[in-house]
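ok trying this again, last paste got cut off
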Amino acid sequence: MANPLYGAGPSRSREGLISRNAASSDEIQLRIDPMHADLDEEIDGLHRKIRQLKGVAQEIETEAKFQNDFITQLQMTLIKAQAGVKNNMRRLNKSIIQKGSNHLVHVILFTLFCFFVVYFWSKISRR
């Protein structure tokens, strides 16, 4: 069986193309079978599909750019929020250090007050 590559022998492809030996061994001649004349329609169909794919690719590119911009803005917002939290923590720590541990006394007093309110309320509601 002859090798159909590079014009080594006539071969018929599925689409109806026939390769024949040319005068030079480096050339291939192709002839289109009239039986498969719908190649133009297939080519036009492929062109339409390529245009559709190009449109989809452009939409994907637009969406990717939009999401990239959104992520960039989100990162900037997060950086600002982190800086704000860090600044507030620094202020809170300075305030605690300057005023001492009075905040702990206030928390304990508030807890005791809440406990006594609940206790007295339960005593009054039983009567």
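PB: full thing came through this time. The helical segments are 39-99, 102-126.
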